[in-house]
What we know:
6-stranded mixed beta sheet, alpha/beta
Amino acid sequence: MSEHTTTVAGVAVDTRHWIGGERVASTETFADTSPIDGGTLGEIARGTPSEAAAAVAAAKAAFPAWAATPRAERARVLHAIADGVERRLEELAAVETADNGALLRSHRRGVMPRVAHNFRFFADWLLRLGHEDFDTRGHTNHVSWDPAGPCVLITPWNAPLMLATWKVAPALAAGNTVVLKPAEWSPLTASLLADIAAEAGLPAGVLNVVQGYGSEVGDALTSHPDVRRISFTGSVPTARHIAASAAANLTPLSLELGGKSPLLVFADADLDLAVDLAVEQYDNAGQVCLAATRVLVEETVAEEFTRRFVDRAARLKQGDPRDEATDIGPTIHPRQLERIDGFVRRALAAGARAVIGGHRGEGQYYVPTLLTDVAQDSEIVQEEVFGPVLTLQTFTDEDEAVRLANDTRFGLAATVATGDAERAERVSARLVAGTVWVNCFFVRDLRAPFGGSRHSGVGREGGTWSFDFYCDLKNTVTAPKGWQDHG
């Protein structure tokens, strides 16, 4: 086996970059560790501005031919990539579970099938994309969706491959070339994606993968003058940095950032359903940007809701994510664990009460936590923790519920539990959020727009909205036949 290959869960993974259709090593590496047991999974090529520049150059060189490739052929290649994902689904699931600690059962049944679906959906959407021509005083207006050019896609660690392909698939479908920079804490499945894309016949240079540690590679990519689009999912501070880096070239940005989403539970709600929705927020050890971490309960049912919540949460099993019976796995990295613990310790010191949890478990595990007696302006209510930590507050009426729900700098999502259809419609209209779920959670349709308001992001993706971002829209206006006679 090559010195640049590591074996994870029985799967060989190349630890080098993928640039211009070739594997490229770096002089330095960084260790990738598993959150399950802290063991080293491999030494990953540590990119520099040199590799970043080479990847952009490869994407730029490959762009004209890929942009000129007929839509049907681009769609065929994307479907071939989806086929490759499905053939290697078990391998991808096992590697990603080892790398980021999310549940193996979730990867097998939901996440990796969604990865394949991302490619199929945008391939099919491409073939129906377009607008009818329209007339202006006899002149024909024709709107075309032109590929924009090389795109830099920077993706997070909590759902590495699914969120990467949520960007890669529409960018490629639109006729763009891509430089993908995966998160340093979970880089392995991006490398496998490069192999799958090459096997599917994606031309060299159309997809490039550059590994990085810290901001060195990211800065070189986001400030590059040949980059035509930047899409980023991650934290608000990093987004500010990227936006400043991109500003010199006025590179368009799509930013999907943090959240501090509310779950509003009204007295007329099905309390068992509301409790299930609340407990579901511990999914992926709370490392979900959409998670409704602020539970707001009408005070007349707060005591009963809390009792049922405690009973339900007690049945959760925390442990090895490879175990089919496990409900909550580990935190991704020791630094993230320390961050979560710091938030909770400061909240407890400020007067919060832990109804459940409030402390670390063994290894990289944090015990599912529910905090009450928290002030609306406190850090624990206002800032994204990104761990299995919920807060519970009460409200007296609809107006107070909406006021509390909207009283953060974020606006990514919200969830409403109520048995009153009119109230659901009324409250949803008043909430500041890119997505509102009523009596459900995490139901996603790729045809719908996705993104956040306020500090939760810039722009929307999904369906036609993705192509709006990844294309340069052009309107061609043609004079009526015989215009030469009127010159």
